[in-house]
Design goal:
The longest helix is centred in the last third of the chain and has 20 residues, at 80-99. The chain is 52% helix and 17% strand. It is built from 5 helices and 5 strands, in the order βαβααβαβαβ.
Length: 106
């Protein structure tokens, strides 16, 4: 699975995905810092990434207006370890079929 990790998501999440063998790329690596949300969403759709973000409001709106890939809204937790754990369990349970073209919350 290919994931695009938004700037507001902790770097530990990206590391956890990579350790699990996922193709994970941070927005800042490919689009630079402070990229507009519309451009992030367009890139994820165009390149076939499932987007992971904590920015619920803006990306839920974009996903509703122009579905084209999967969206995972990561809820903030007390620890980064907990965020990673919830995300990895959700990804494993949903699989690519449950993620692609859908909105999921972890």
């Amino acid at each position: 699975m290919r994931f695009l990790v938004d700037e507001d998501v902790a770097v530990e999440v990206d590391w956890a995905l990579r350790q699990r063998g996922c193709d994970s790329v941070r927005v800042a690596e490919v689009l630079g810092f402070q990229t507009d949300d519309v451009d992030v969403w367009d890139y994820a759709c165009r390149e076939g990434f499932i987007l992971i973000t904590c920015n619920r409001q803006d990306f839920l709106e974009l996903a509703g207006e122009a579905p084209g890939t999967g969206l995972i809204v990561l809820n903030r937790r007390r620890t980064r370890q907990s965020e990673c754990s919830h995300l990895l369990r959700m990804i494993e349970a949903a699989g690519e079929e449950g993620l692609r073209g859908n909105i999921n919350f972890a």
